[in-house]
Amino acid sequence: MDRRDILKGMGITTATGALGLWSLPGEASQSRPAAFNGLPAVKIKKVKSIVTCPHGIELIVVKVETDQPDLVGYGCATFRQRAHAVVAAIDEYLDDFCRGRNVENIEDIWQTTYVSSYWRNGPVLNNALSGLDQALWDIKGKMAGMPVYQLLGGKSRFAVDCYSHANGRSPEEVAEDAQRIMGEGYRHVRIQLGGYGALNLADKADFKDAGFGRPEDNYMNQRTYLTMVPKLFEHVRKACGEEVELLHDIHERVQPLDAIQMIRKLEDYRPFFIEDPFSPENIGYFELLRNHTTVPIAMGELYNSPHEWLNPMSKRWFDFIRIHISQIGGITPAMKVARLGEWFNVRTAWHGPGDVSPVGHAANAHIDLAVWNFGIQESVHFSDKLMEIFPGAPYMKNGYMYVNEAPGLGIDVDEKQAAKYPLPEKFDYNWTQVRQKDGTAIRP
Ligand code: MG
User: Fold this and answer.
1) Where in the chain is the domain with CATH 3.20.20.120?
2) Helix (H/G/I), strand (E/B), else coil: 283
3) Domain 160-435 belongs to what topology?
4) Which residues contact 439 (CB under 8 A, 6 or more apart)?
5) Which residues make up the environment of ion ligand 1, defined by Cβ < 5 Å?
6) For a Cys staple, 75 with which of 50, 135, 156, 379, CB 3.0–4.6 Å?
7) pTM here?
8) How far apart are CA 253 and CA 435, in angstroms?
9) Topology, domain 3-147
């Protein structure tokens, strides 16, 4: 469906004028019809959740249906750790709150929904809000007959430059994996030992012998990690050359002063950025970090509230803002974060792991294409199953991400395919559960 069909559905067939806003290539110019300037508005008929879990990762998408046949929008509301709570927030509250509202007024719907719970800025409600917000941008793009990045200002670059992940249990294995990734055309590689934060490397966990915690809990030797990362950088830089950009994620799991000392040791290897040195509770250490090293820092995948990024960004305490867009409420707030960053030279590096739905990756990429202060994007490859559920998802080529150029976010959701993979009965908490040798829980 394009804007001609929408107009037809509203009983509008002619409206000529000089602006040409409503003409398609080869058609006579049409000014924006008065009907779109106010009444009758296209209205929200239903807001509902779609869930799917084809690879053990719970994905949640919001579908906004309108009173125009076939005009629907999709947005990412994926918060896998509390999937059922997000579904309830969408189906029980957003649907009721949004029915009958004018789909054109995204900012107003965002602002009123944001305060509709009175208490706000939490991950569950922000994800539900993101699904709604992204779906409204998708609809606006379909109404305009344009990809969303056009509505955000048009392209600042031809495609979205991405980094990929190199992993291994030793510096040699990581270097080998990095070379494989560089062979695929990537110019940026994130290097990690033993997965996130060198989990389960080296020695054994005493808490397990003592029967403390759950048998499946992870053990992290923070000292081993802190010692190995500089060695990892030294080896990979030597093996892979000067040209490639190297990234690393601390994942917050060490003491702040230990993180600062380790980052200083990485200066000679010129990291592109070091990610998440501190947990959100330790934002207060950024000034100290900045005073001791010029290594670029990326931060923010755990942020939910403006109070977490406003002060550090305006103080230039980090260089890349790494927010998980559905965790702050969608494209509308993310664009404000990006614009804020432009004036403080903070570039975007939106969080883009497997627990972002393909709709969310598309939203990331549309913003990446448009904003001037784009930094880098986390790459993603979708399986055949995911491509069946989400036709039109972004795709990778030579280390760049491309979006489908169809109007809106360019991505569809096949609800029948999605329904084949319902949410699991039991949730896997394992990834967040990491302990020290004596069993003390470590905060990501
Ligand atoms: Mg991270």
Assistant:
1) 160-435
2) helix
3) TIM Barrel (3.20.20)
4) 206, 207, 210, 212, 213
5) 249, 301
6) 135
7) 0.91
8) 10
9) Enolase-like; domain 1 (3.30.390)
